[in-house]
Amino acid sequence: MVNSVVLVRAALVALTLVMHCSALYANDSLGVYFKLESFTYSETVPIDAALHEWETTDFESGDRQWSWNWLEMGVQWGHFSLGYLRREEYDLRFSPDTAELYWRTANQLDLAPNTDYEIDLRARHFQASGLRFAFRNHHAFAVMALDYQVGFARFEAQDLIDGRLVGRGRTVNNRDYDYVAELNYHYSEDRLFERQVEAPSGTGYAVDLALQAEYRQHRLSVVATDLVGAIYWRDAPYTEGTLNSDNKRYDASGYVRVNPTLSGYEGVSDEFRQPLQTRITADYDYAVSDRLAVGLMLQQQYDKTLLAPSVALLASHALKLGYWPQTEMLQLQWRTPGWVISLGADGIDEGIRALALRFAYQPLLHR
Questions:
Q1: Using alpha carbons only, what angle is made at residue 356 by residues 350 and 361, rounded to the nearest 5 degrees?
Q2: Distance between CA atoms of 101 and 165, rounded to whole angstroms?
Q3: Contact 156, 131 (CB under 8 A)
Q4: Residue 367 pLDDT level (bands cut at 50, 70, 90)
Q5: Coil, helix or strand for 176?
Q6: CA distance linking residue 97 with residue 243, whole number of Å
Q7: 309-329 pLDDT, tens per residue?
Q8: Going by C-beta distance under 8 Å and a sequence separation of 6 or more, which residues neighbour residue 294?
């Protein structure tokens, strides 16, 4: 889903440049900022297996997989900033029956004879790169401090997937099954029928908003990414129709391999609009004392809301520990003025299903 080697290399290069430029412009309003954020989650199989056709014996019933990745670097001049942005998203939603049938057939495991399966799969993906412009400001009131930022991004997109497959399946015996399903999807590469197509080009626009407020012992920060946004694809290939499993072959062990048959049509959309999914993250802290705070973290993404209680040690370098029970992920965050480093995972072995990373630097505003 995401090339972690590329992300790590980019982070190291950016870290070197940020440290050099932040020292160079320490007494000026010009500075360099950097943000790397990634969150990958798979309910059904470990992330490593999700990248390799679900080839694993470690399976749990589930209906979601996603990967959200954002890399941005640029310059800040006073209240304004302009940076290069690269982003990628995967959003897979499926019925538990779809997940089980796919996992069993991918690993050639025995099927329960005469079992019905509800097939429902929705898939979205894109890669994009472009520019993001933002305005940032600070207001200090008698009892409260408020920071806010409004951003606008324009980017060119590629690698389109957007569609849905809905139908029914039924096993014939422990090594064979039938299905029929309705398909409607747009793409840059036809992974189902290997149809040779010219990849479409897309242009995207997005608006984001960030707020941070402090009031006595209370601290709240909220970030809404893709508050408004969409990608407009030109000349996007699509396939629409009914799929069935009539075209079958069997391997040496007698396990079925289905080459799906399409009854429908293929074409090219002059323009296809792919809406961007709003992502909201929120972080609330209540200072119990000068050294300790308790709080709650929220992440709303792809129509799924995650919550995590947290505890923080307060100092010039705040250290926070949070636990996300829905993903069983433990997250450790280190924050100091200008810097945020965070890492979260639900384990330390190859069975990891949830992995989150954030590494960001932004110069403080001169107030």
A1: 135
A2: 14
A3: no
A4: low
A5: strand
A6: 18
A7: 999 998 766 899 999 999 999
A8: 285, 286, 288, 309, 310, 311, 312
